[in-house]
Amino acid sequence: MRAAKASGPPLRxxxxxxxxxxxxxxxxxxxxxxxxxxxxxxxxxxxxSADRAVCPICPHACALAEGQTGLCxxxxxxxxxxxxxxxxxxxxxxxxxxxxxxxxxxxxxxKVLSVGSYGCNLRCPFCQNASIACAxxxxxxxxEIAPVELVELAVSLASEGNIGLAFTYNEPLVGLEFVRDxxxxxxxxxLANVLVSNGYVxxxxxxxxxxxxxxxxxxxxxxxxxxxxxxGGDLDIVxxxxxxxxxxxxxxxxxxxxxxxxxxxxxxxxxxxxxxxxSLNPSIPYHLTxxxxxxxxxxxxxxxxxxxxxxxxxxxxxxxxxxxGNC
Length: 327
Prior knowledge:
Layout: H1 19-24, E1 52-54, E2 63-65, E3 75-78, E4 81-84, E5 89-90, E6 92-97, E7 111-116, H2 130-133, E8 143-144, H3 147-156, E9 162-167, H4 176-188, E10 192-197, H5 203-209, E11 215-219, H6 225-231, H7 235-246, E12 252-259, H8 267-280, E13 286-290, H9 305-315, E14 322-325
Parallel strand pairs: 7-9, 9-10, 10-11, 11-12, 12-13, 13-14
Antiparallel strand pairs: 1-2, 3-4, 5-8, 6-7
């Protein structure tokens, strides 16, 4: 059942102005409206009908007619732009230990207010949050919460050990505008911003949000393009996201691979992934977690714990900090 929207005026869209102009006009602080993501799309719409808008957020570059929803089910063409229809629509909210993100080496022992919406731009058959990540607005209950409300809630939980906000559960960057607007306000209030993402995002949007992120965990789902063909993505795009965040001095980066029997559990694949991460920074924490059958991938057993520990030992040949999960 779809939750009722919060009362108040409809959202306003300000077009493709820069973040600096947005701040000058006070749009970020305006809880009645939001600002469109900058149009980072490199497409010139050649061959597209004039009434279609190209989404700038990820490499799928969905070309949408007015009112049409993109592959992620979270973005919609409206007024000649592709907007985040899931802006402020919260499906999941929990005060979690920071280690659950997982982040092993960022503010250990603290908690973070974790928030999710709906939608994702990949189609992983093993999705652990399919009930929201594979959902659209009418498939799951949600509550509308403005950025300023969410930030004030996070501030109110400081006495319980909360250090900030984590954008997680579904794919946060399909709602980049909400992440950006909320993260800016969070920094004003002295909060930390955490991003848990599949890393499948275009370079422009990535650079818009990266300076606002204090810690990130990026899913490196596999280290072959054949694995990314399975989930509908591109390994090089995800590697680029990891490279950018690793080079962002204000962002602490960790990386996670879910180890799935017969798909990405070879010694060679994990060794190559660990070697590549080490080439960026041998101190990047790397999490190898155990798969359990779920969603549409139920044709194989859970990953044996000894397999995860063995692969962790291989990764430790190249990286200083390797962790196992779900074991």
